[in-house]
Write a structure and sequence with these properties.
The structure holds three protein chains of three kinds. Chain A is built from 15 helices and no strands. By secondary structure, chain A is an all-alpha fold. Chain A has two domains: 40 residues, no CATH class; 209 residues, MetI-like (MetI-like fold, Orthogonal Bundle), CATH 1.10.3720. Chain B is α/β, with parallel strands linked by helices. The termini of chain B are far apart. Chain B is built from 17 helices and eleven strands. By secondary structure, chain C is mainly α. In chain C, strands 1-4 form a two-stranded antiparallel sheet. Chain C has a two-stranded antiparallel ribbon with strand order 2-3. The two termini of chain C are 12 Å apart. The relative contact order of chain C is 0.10. The chains are: A mainly alpha, B alpha/beta, C mainly alpha.
Amino acid sequence: MSSPSIIENKSVALRIFSAGFVVVWLLIAAFPFIWTLWGSFKVELDFFSKENWTNAITGIRTIKETGAAYTMNGYEGAWVQEEFWKSVVNTTIVCFFVVCTSLTIGTLGGYALSRTNFRYGFWLLITALIFRAMPPITLVSGYLLPFFEWGLWGSLSTTIVVLVAINQPFTLWMLHSFFQKIPKELDESAKVDGCTQFQAFRHVIIPVMWPGVITTGLFSFLLAYNDFAVTAMLLAKENQTMVPKIAGFLGTTQTEGNVMFAVAAVVSATIPLFILVMFFQRQIVSGLTAGAVKG
Amino acid sequence: MKKTLIGALAIGALMTASNLSHAACKIEKGKVNIIGNEFPAIQTIGAGAKACAGDGVEVKANLTKEHKTIQVPGLTGNPAEYSVAIVANSSIVPLMNDDLIRPLDDLIAKHGGNFKDNQKISIGGKTMAIGFMANAQHFVYRKDMLEKAGVEPPKTYEDVLAAAKAIKEKGLAKYPFGGAYAAGWGLAQEFNNMYIGHGGKFFKEGSAMPSINGPEGVATLNMMKSLAEYMNPDFLTMNNNEINAEWKAGNLPMMQMWGSRAGPLLAGEGTAPGVPENTVLAWPLTVAGKDIPATTLWWDGWTIAKNVSDEDAEASYLAMINAIDPKIMNDKVAEQAVWLIDGYKPTPASAGVFATIEAKAQPYPMLPYQALLHTALGAELPDFLAGKETAEKTLADAEAAYITAAKEKGFIK
Amino acid sequence: MKHRTFFWFFLPTALAMLLFIFLPIISVVTQSLFVSHEQVFVEVENCDIFGCKNEMMIDAAATEKLRAEQPLGRFVGLANYFNRSHLATSEIATLWQTAESWGTFYDGLFNLPLYRAIIFTLVFTFVTTPSVIIVGFMIAVAVNALNQHLKGLVIFFSLLPFVVTPLVGSLILFWMIDARGIIGNSLQYLMGDPNLSLKASTGLTWITLIVYGVWHAAPFAFVIFYAGLQTLPQDTLESAMIDGASRWQRIRFVVIPHLMPLVTFVALIQLMDNFRVFEPIVGFNASAHATSLSFLIYNDMDGEARLLNSAATTSVLTIIGVAILLSPVLVRTWRDWNRKV
């Protein structure tokens, strides 16, 4: 990534303005998370203090209740007592299979769309877009009855298939635009050499498609990781993923939840994302650069 | 945290007793699968049923917040996924409307069970559910703050307004009253409470036509608005979680709260100093000089699915009978709820609910169309409380919204 | 590509979408044309722990017969679309005749659930989408100008609002903007108004939701534009500089046209997502002041009310709304496609 030249010859004032803007943005973007991270080591009366928000910084009640300025109670409650780790395992399984499946079938479909000149290709693309317009809650409530009747409800595999399907329109759009940027001549010449379309795809396209696929995969991952509508309704209690589990910590109308468990769990659930973004940020950008997105 | 910990301990205690009770369940064969809410008392019931698992007997439980959405499709198939649904007097209605649960009379005749006669919930002469716990919203106040303000503990909402005025004038609290007025279910429930207190009837006699737009309805809304003036200005976004948190922080002198949420307030963990020892779980309030408490009574009980085999129904019945047997009662379990089970000794946390039962409060109506009116009210009432409409207009809107919904469901022609 | 080959390549993804999106849409469209049977009531004595009383209930046997005859319920055509909970045609006609001014007409419109939801949804969509694009673009340009070593860290923090589950929004931000939370309290201080509350008035609630929407989605626009900036044609830029174009002119005539396809993509996704706005309304308990189409669906599907036909109708209206909203993009794609042919 060479730095492009719009920044060359920049005046000092503009540089300062630009840097100042980044600082302000970073503050806005990151502050709630830093605040949450800090607050997760306090007790509820401090973090959600009704007296003065500065209690969250000083931790007066935390010191009174636990004897120290920081407490691991939230984490202990969430991880040990409420067995949050089980949900972590479930989320890992769901995310892994959702990403793999949706990329496999999405790559095939997106590639095919990018290499067809027939009108139906356009209509398929548009149909996929309209499919994406369907509010997920409507879809999910429609699944409940048939899934119960066929005994499919509650298992991780059902949820994985549903998440893959719901995410296909987006995956297809991204990958389609990406494959369009890979010159057709590549697979055409392979076919002239006697390859079938699939062989051409395998030997010529697969080696060069990774940046776009990784970017698309990350979006699939985020969808599966953060999904609430599907996982809350379609998973049995023992198969719950992290997000519905966290929602469960918040209590119901008639019963009290434990907000600090939820806060600690939210922080815990953010850490893998930190690691992920750290690892993949180069790929996200290079994937997009390679043309994964185009109107 | 303490409460859930207690729940975990109680379940642990039950687990160790499970070897003994397996034989006591007398189930030979069958599959039991329970759907229900997830709070500690229901966890205890779930664990009690699971204790019956063993040779040829499979017992599973899915206790989740989403139970209301899942229960109807989950009991609809044939055979149904779930053989037992744990319900309350509002959530049994969708199961009754779709005819998804079976009468228990034959099973009771055949197997009996260690429960009291009044635990039977009978609908049209048939026992459809067995209740195991009670709940109600009632008045809660801070002894010390009322004393400082020099007011007697209120018995009516009019007293509450007077006390709130005194407290505010003395500067003891910025917002002297709390109620779960967040738009939606909670707000509509507060309307229901207050409307019942005014002696109002929700529907015209013998029909599903609404009758809330009358003098009682207007008086109800005006009382709610007067109370709202003593609440946090964000009251339309504040649900039970926020109100209870305010209480724990020591900011509220008076509130209306669920009995099932009162335990942690007395426990002293996560509360500001002075709160637990001064919290009084009082009684239901009345309003407008009437003697009907302005609140509703609730029960939780279990039902058995219609679309399961006789064998599974029988196994389910026996497992649930085991789950509500008086032998489950101990100090830990007693703290989880206001149990209807024999051998339960009321704890301090149950005082408000018992006072509500004694005051002869009405149960939440089990009408097929009550939920539709509830939803319509939850969506329309904020307009009045936010000062955008007159009471009559808001009630007319709620009736119109309800009628549209009731027509769709076939309740009104 | 041959039809046959295309078919096999496209089959898996088509199958997934057919089963899990297309079939449900068909069932939703069907449901929106039906209502439940007329219910047969009987009055019975109900007894619970607290005593006995006479209540109405549904006659199961009679209803069973009706259900067996017509499993889907009564066919009503488009009646669901025109009733008060949806397009409310007769209410609007009355309103049109009685309203004395545009103001009262608007108030009357705002009082009908679907229009109230549509008005908020549209305001949210049309304020949030361009703001996201502008803010995202500004961040991208500013980050691009940073020192190479700083970039990684900045990108990582910038992405946070987008990657973290919206639950954080509901839980933490809802508290932070409270009058006593850090943001709400600081705002009171800044505005010099000790009674300022972001949650108590309709206007401020809308602003809060829109700001949240921009905060949440700006990183998405940012990362896509940032990637686009990496492929800027250097020679065009250089020749522009030689021609003496100012910095602003270079952005206006070189950078923005280059990013245009990406802007279209971001606009497409954002319009669609914003039109379905739902989570912040639930998370911020904001339904007293703001409802959206998705919120209406959620409200109808509530566990006890179960207004499935009504929810289906609103869902179909949502799809139609999105289709109208996206029609310019669709036309563009159609042109692109034909150019390809």
